[in-house]
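Lecture 7 notes: from sequence to structure.
We start with the chain below.
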Amino acid sequence: MQQHQIVSREQWIAARKAHLAHEKQLTEARERLAEERRQLPWVKVDRNYVFDGPEGKVTLGDLFKGRPQLVVQHVMFAPDWDAACKSCSFWADGFERMVPHLAARETTMVAVSLAPVDKLDAFKKRMGWTFDWVSSGGNDFNSEYGVTFSAEQIATGEPMYNFGTTQIYGAELPGISVFYRNEAGEIFHTYSCFARGLDMMNAAYQYLDLTPLGRHEQGLPYPMDWVRLRDQYEPQAAKGACCHG
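Predicted structure tokens for the same chain:
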């Protein structure tokens, strides 16, 4: 970590207020971006997707649970994996307790993965999660919404991920898709985001960004190399300036 200038409280407040002005500019820009996002055109969903849930078959319309808005977290969990992606699980830990708050604003949250529902249920129990999680292994939902890619697609070397702007780096990739269902029962795809567009939905990252060390990912083989499933972290010895042994 670089050495930082040590100043008086008054000098710190002056510097903090200058930074606050920049934070306010970002907040205003983010609000404008959110409004622009809400004004995006929609695409009508004509496919009748059927998923496997804990209680049996469910359609895309069923996933709304009577609410007009649906947020789908695409969790990377291939059929032959024993566990979900550790990074996707990092996000899932974050939204686990948001579900009731979203429901209060007419929005249903659900996770979707390719793995069979028995694997999803077992992993969900291991992690202590309570959100709805269904399997898309019997349909093309994942590939059609840009998070699952075939060996043939990967072999082309073409950037197909994130609306064709990012190189495919695996058969399973993360994403979020948003849908709206009107009173007539018609479903529309309104939004999707991938790659770094997912960062804003990770609360832990937002807290780390407030700290002096930030995400502390410099020098790692890849940025999220430090992330583990939350039951796999080893106890860390205390580090710092303490003089005791």
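Points to note: The chain has nine helices and eight strands. The domain at 43-200 is CATH 3.40.30.10 (Glutaredoxin).
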